[in-house]
Write a structure and sequence with these properties.
338 residues; Outer membrane phospholipase (ompla), Chain C; 13 strands; 6 helices; alpha+beta; globular; 18% helix; 43% strand; twelve-stranded antiparallel barrel
Length: 338
């Protein structure tokens, strides 16, 4: 971290209160405190986010949208919390949704392969099972190459557990593994009444960790744009699949079902949160895709956990059944919100 330019910037903050909505004595004190304990490589933008001081462009976007310019929007608040963790060694933060759904009901019976082949007697998958997902990320390189952006590594795992299937000895029906690495650049620019928070690009791998006829996997170059407006958050992620040798491709038609992008919308209403995910193959004929709707809400018995209801409809809930249309309703706990 370059100390002199940073001090110069802090001096500008103190000398020009009109440039920042929260250039108060408290904000200045916060900046000085964070400077004293900032990790190597932390940028001015990260310090400003940590102290809830919006960039001028972000303020203008909020003002154009008729919102309070001095109140951080929903994504900025999340970045503010994450920035506090990045100053610590061994920091790990939530990436995507983290949840446990002890009860999910599949309208169509899931595939019994491949676990049924491991049993001596015939076994079928049950429609009621447990589903859970955990997802985390770590900053690999803050202010990478003095660009102002950072490199992150992330991992997401989604599992489907036949917990109530005593006949089949309660096996895990399917687990999908998704490691990824990406470069993320903060933008804070007004776009059509929204604040464009950041842009990213990276490499994503997803597979079910199986071999031969039960193997499912693909690799993608994945982009990302994140927008915010008050309590609304939007993420658009287009992707381009990295082609494989046709002899080694386990699922050559996967994009016909999982599409070429996903779109996520989040909205907070006080202590309640709603999330929506849509993906599509953008074809007039044989149009396929999926959507997922979730609602998380506070629990009176534990303020660290939240209730969560999730509905999925379409293709690709799990890789083993990527080409099977499914409708699934689940109820459980949210461990880390968006």
């Amino acid at each position: 971290m370059k100390l002199f330019p940073l001090l110069a910037t802090l001096a500008c903050v103190a000398a020009a209160p009109s440039a920042f909505a929260q250039s108060t004595p408290d904000a200045q004190r916060c900046l000085l405190e964070q400077l004293d304990k900032a990790a190597e490589g932390m940028t001015v933008a990260q310090l400003r986010t940590l102290c809830a001081i919006p960039a001028p462009a972000a303020q203008q976007a909020a003002a154009d949208a008729g919102l309070e310019a001095d109140k951080p929007a929903v994504v900025t608040r999340r970045l503010q919390e994450e920035a506090a963790e990045y100053g610590k060694r061994y920091s790990i933060t939530a990436h995507r949704l983290n949840y446990i759904l002890p009860i999910t009901y599949d309208q169509r019976r899931p595939s019994s392969e491949p676990f049924a082949n491991d049993l001596e007697e015939d076994a079928r998958a049950q429609k009621i099972e447990m589903k859970y997902q955990f997802s985390f990320k770590v900053p690999l390189l803050l202010n990478a190459f003095d660009s102002g952006g950072s490199i992150f590594g992330g991992y997401t795992q989604r599992s489907f557990w036949q917990m109530y299937n005593n006949k089949a000895s309660k096996p895990f029906r399917e687990t999908n593994y998704e490691p990824e690495v990406w470069y993320q650049y903060p933008i804070n620019m007004p776009v059509l009444g929204w604040n464009l928070v950041s842009a990213s690009i990276g490499v994503n791998h997803q597979s079910n960790g199986r071999a031969k006829e039960y193997s499912r996997s693909w690799n993608r170059i994945m982009g990302g744009l994140v927008f915010e407006r008050g309590e609304y958050a939007i993420q658009l992620r287009p992707w381009w699949r990295l082609r494989e040798n046709s002899n080694d491709d386990d699922n050559g038609d996967i994009q016909h079902y999982l599409g070429y992008f996903d779109f996520a919308l989040g909205r907070k209403f006080g202590s309640h949160s709603f999330d929506l995910m849509i993906r599509n193959n953008l074809k007039r004929r044989d149009n396929r895709g999926a959507f997922q709707v979730g609602w998380s809400f506070p629990l009176p018995i534990n303020d660290r956990l939240r209730g969560y209801v999730q509905y999925f409809g379409g293709y690709g809930e799990s890789l083993i059944d990527y080409n099977v249309r499914q409708n699934t309703l689940g109820v459980g706990l949210m461990l880390a919100d968006w």
